[in-house]
Amino acid sequence: MKILEKYNESPSREYEEDILVEEILTDSHRLVLHNDDFNTFDFVIECLIEICGHTEEQAQQCTLLVHFKGKCTVKTGPTDILIPMHEKLISRGLTSEIV
């Protein structure tokens, strides 16, 4: 019981941590890749690896989600990081957006 009391003594710290996490999450945007009828699975996988820094397995999973669901969030973060990725994906003929 003493251990629980010790942890309950500083509820303000827990509250501060919650606020910090919320601030980090609200500053985040999503790079969404949309399905198309033109690009091959292999090409999309290659683009996700090169542009977004995905592992091969991550890129394959995202590509399957795009194919079957119509879109997939391929990266999250601040816009200054996502905009260059978005522009590179578009320059390769893929359809993406930042939301």
TrEMBL record:
Residues 27-91 form the Adaptor protein ClpS core domain. Gene3D superfamilies: 3.30.1390.10. It comes from the Bacteria. Keywords: Hydrolase, Protease. The keyword Protease applies. The keyword Glycoprotein does not apply. One of its GO terms (molecular function) is peptidase activity. GO terms for biological process: protein catabolic process; proteolysis. InterPro entries: ClpS_core (IPR003769), Ribosomal_bL12_C/ClpS-like (IPR014719). This is ATP-dependent Clp protease adaptor protein ClpS. It comes from Cruoricaptor ignavus. The lineage of its organism: Bacteria, Pseudomonadati, Bacteroidota, Flavobacteriia, Flavobacteriales.
